[in-house]
User: Fold these one by one.
Assistant:
Number 1:
Amino acid sequence: MIFLTIEQQFFNEFRLMYRPFTNQLNRQLEPYQLYSSQWAVLRFLIDKGPHSLVEIANFMSIEKPSVTRLVQKLVDLRYVETVAGKDKRAKVVQLTPYGEKIVDEIQEHIKPLLEKALAGVSKQDIEIASRVLANISKNIHQ
């Protein structure tokens, strides 16, 4: 019989949680014509402010052409706009006032999903898990 190491078990549990959560989140985002990856861009802009396409790509660990497509959809929805940056060659992506309103609305809309997913998990455990995941992310990106 093969036994999983604690490390293998951890990443197995993460995988078993991640996909179903993303699928449920995508269903919650449908009324806003969004997917989780586009929501991630909006969250990044709320948390970190206006950034260039390259900075968004680096933060999300995806290729710039993928970010360009994600942002274009958000522009089409009027959630974000692109403006010239300090370096006129680089576009900066920022939320529109409408986008800020939509982000607030989405956060309220998905709150029950987040609460359900974290039911029975203490605030302390959530803080610990957040730190653990941040450390793993940092290790992977080194």
Number 2:
Amino acid sequence: MEKTEPKKLSFKGVDYPCCASLTMGVIGGKWKTVILYYLMNEKLRYNELRKSMPTVTERTLSLQLKALEEDGLIRRKVYTSKPPLKVEYSLTDFGKTLIPIVQSVADWGDYVAESHSK
């Protein structure tokens, strides 16, 4: 029998051993999925996101927003027409493709909280 090399997947210059690894590499971690969850249905300003996630540090939130923006999942729009500076975050079309995944993760969390918590 011939051994075939596993298919390598690459995204933004990073190689992943499988499709699940790529997905988790892009949206994994403690805060990225939470940010995507809050942006699923509306555009939010930085402070609105921060209030939705009171335990995240400002540094971590800023870094995670930057990473999601660099990966093309969220859009950062700066309004400079009048002070104070207004920055708004929203999902890109590419980011919107994650809505079913993020919703499934949220639904599973609700299920666990209702059915398996004591």
Number 3:
Amino acid sequence: MTRSRRPSEQTITVLRALAADPAAWRYGYELGVEVGLKAGSMYPILIRLADRGLLETEWENDPQPGRPARHLYRLTGDGVRFAAGLPATAPAPPLRPRLAGS
């Protein structure tokens, strides 16, 4: 049974960035810089989206000399449709109460 739940705000941000030019292949690092996510958050999101069929991935064909090949990502047709169905604006995250002395 597939569980359906609302994607996180971080995932929505990644999907929107990819949907800005859905045919373009993107590097994970550059995408992370664009959306303000560190690798520890960015790559698990990309992996989950690919596992769900919303992203396609491939290895870079001609890496720069002295640099290993990098993964490239772009939305699939299902990914484009899913991103198009996201709310136009994301709700603001709830405010966290500050602890005394913070």
